[in-house]
Specification:
- The chain has two helices and nine strands, in the order βββββββββαα.
- By secondary structure, the chain is mainly beta.
- It has two domains: 3-121; 133-171, no CATH class.
- The strands form two sheets. Strands 2, 3, 4, 5, 6 and 7 form a six-stranded antiparallel beta sheet that branches. Strands 1-9-8 form a three-stranded antiparallel beta sheet.
- A hairpin with a 6-residue loop joins strand 6 and strand 7 (75-89).
């Protein structure tokens, strides 16, 4: 877990601090599948700007995530540019304006913040490629490797009476 001590940031209103830090990233678990950042430690730029009523924190880095494609389960890789911003009010009465990543007004939990920023930056579906065909719903083979179709299965004889009613309504 990577943290940044705010004791090093003695800022007055309007001043800014920029630090480049190595941030530890943990794998994300999405839909029961693990997406691992490679490398697990990335250089990130932290910027702290002191405002009159609080502080603005900015974190930026690039991450490569590796895990399974949601359609075919082959390896998928994503490169994501991450830019996150948090505001933390100095007055204790405004809980909604206090960042959950600032712990006790003394440290910033950069690993937790980076994990959440990555989760928010993910696309709806993580694919190995944009035109991934997925798996065959009948036999389970990868349609990207072996495109194929199956003959239509004969209708279930238990539904024959309903099919006859539908045919009578159509005529």
């Amino acid at each position: 877990m990577t943290t940044f001590s705010l004791r090093n940031a003695k800022l007055r209103t309007g001043e800014q601090l920029r630090e480049t830090l190595d941030v530890d990233l943990e794998p994300l678990l999405l839909g029961g599948q693990e997406y691992a950042p490679e490398p697990a430690v990335v250089p990130a730029e932290l910027t702290i700007t002191k405002a009159t009523t609080g502080s603005v924190y900015e974190l930026s880095f690039r991450v490569n995530l590796h895990g399974p494609c949601v359609r075919c389960l082959a390896d998928a890789a994503l490169e994501l540019p991450i830019r996150a911003r948090e505001y933390h009010a100095t007055k204790p009465g405004d809980e909604e304006l206090r960042s959950p990543y600032v712990v006790g007004d003394e440290t910033v939990d950069l690993s937790a913040w980076a994990r959440d920023a990555i989760a928010l930056a993910l696309p709806d579906k993580i694919l190995c490629r944009a035109d991934c065909a997925g798996l065959c719903p009948v036999c389970g083979k990868d349609l990207n490797v072996e495109p194929h179709t199956h003959e239509e299965a004969p209708p279930d004889s238990r539904w024959a009476a309903l099919e006859a009613l539908r045919a009578d309504d159509a005529s």
